[in-house]
Design brief:
alpha/beta
């Protein structure tokens, strides 16, 4: 745990899930720079008496520090929401002082202050600004924040094209602010998200089908090569069973499992609300529950944390190995542990990953077994059974 100190007080903050080995703080220099700007330490303070919206607050540091102004937090991340809930409780903030909303929820009708942490995905930012633009007005204070490596010319062009005239601050501690003056009369065009595309041939049950992708999900404009390889080598199963598409993205793996086994119950799990919206739209477009016994559930969760132990027959998983800008296997390890707990005896975990990630060693350590179901020079599909 670390302490963020501002002119209005100090706040004890952690990331989620909490880990004593996690060396990273729940905020960075961009958050500090933004809070200083609002407090008026380098100039006049910002009027925060109206509706304050905080977009992409990664671990809740901003809304915790601004809780006296009853901000609305909008995020694509379930983990961000959990971190925020824990941080506001830890700091004695009333639970109703911060309104938690997802990128799929309607925004407030009127936004007087819009604070934007620039996300990694430019597409996500584009979609978010389009969604929020009708709710800002000429007097709305819009301030973006990010590290210098996160703010590019293309970032500024998005603010200019969708909201209005934009300028940037000087860099401080490798962080920078974005100032935008909304122009309600701006002709911004249509929001290009979500997008759809047809899947290629030769990938099993989903060959040629159309998938829907909301902004911000991995490979939103094409099928990534790892998933393509996985789809070619999914297990063939029959009969009533519970299948989990873990880290589902746009849901094509779970859809393939459902189309291959009409008696399956499929749970789609992701920490991204954009991903779950994509998966549900794609699934509903191709599975008519009036004509099939397949049922589906779409669950925002930290891995398998929302699935009861011993209730799953098959987990299909393409784990991420990046968290924000950090390469890590921590998420994969949590997914593997959660899968083992959720599987019934005899249940199977199937994983696809780059060969160099060495998932086979982790699976053998956890399950006591692991076999290679398929491989090529870049990817490997692994199968582990819970005994």
């Amino acid at each position: 745990m670390n302490r963020l100190t501002t002119s209005t007080g100090g706040f004890d903050l952690t990331r989620f899930p909490e880990s004593p080995r996690d060396p990273l703080r729940a905020w960075d220099a961009a958050d500090e720079y933004l809070l200083r700007e609002l407090e008026g330490i380098d100039g006049a303070p910002t009027d925060l008496s109206g509706t304050v919206v905080v977009l992409n607050d990664r671990w809740g540091a901003l809304v915790t520090a601004l809780a006296d102004h009853r901000p609305v937090q909008i995020t694509d991340s379930y983990l961000t929401q959990r971190a925020t809930q824990a941080n506001i409780e830890r700091n004695g903030v009333a639970a109703d002082a911060v309104r938690l909303a997802t990128t799929q929820d309607p925004p407030p009708d009127r936004i007087d202050v819009l604070l934007v942490r620039v996300p990694k995905s430019l597409a996500l930012l584009e979609d978010q600004l389009h969604r929020l633009a009708p709710h800002v007005h000429a007097g709305t204070v819009v301030v973006g924040a990010g590290m210098v490596t996160e703010i590019h010319t293309s970032t500024l062009r998005l603010f200019e094209r969708i909201l209005g005239p934009t300028r940037t601050s000087l860099a401080v501690k490798k962080a920078r602010l974005i100032f935008c003056a909304p122009d309600p009369g701006l002709s911004r065009g249509e929001n290009p998200w979500p997008r759809s595309y047809a899947l290629p041939a030769g990938i099993g049950a989903v060959s040629g089908l159309t998938v829907t992708n909301h902004a911000g999900i991995f490979c939103a404009d094409r099928l990534d090569v790892g998933t393509r390889f996985f789809l070619r080598h999914l297990p063939s199963r029959r009969g009533p069973e519970h299948v989990v598409d873990l880290g589902c993205g746009n849901g094509v793996v779970g859809l393939a499992a459902a189309l291959g086994n009409g008696e399956a119950q499929v749970t789609f799990i992701d920490e991204s609300y954009q991903a779950l919206a994509s998966a549900e739209t794609t699934f509903r477009a191709h599975i008519d529950n009036a004509d099939a016994s397949t049922t589906a559930r779409f669950l925002a969760a930290d891995g398998m944390s929302g699935v009861p132990a011993g209730t799953v027959d098959l987990v299909l998983n393409n784990p991420p190995f990046h968290a924000h800008r950090t390469t890590t296997d921590e998420t994969a390890w949590r997914m593997f542990n959660g899968s083992r707990a959720a599987l019934r005896r005899g249940g199977e975990l199937w994983v696809v990953g780059n060969r160099h990630l060495g998932y086979h060693a982790k699976l053998r350590r956890l399950f006591g077994n692991c076999e290679v179901a398929a491989s090529d020079p870049r990817f490997v599909v692994l199968r582990a059974v819970k005994h």
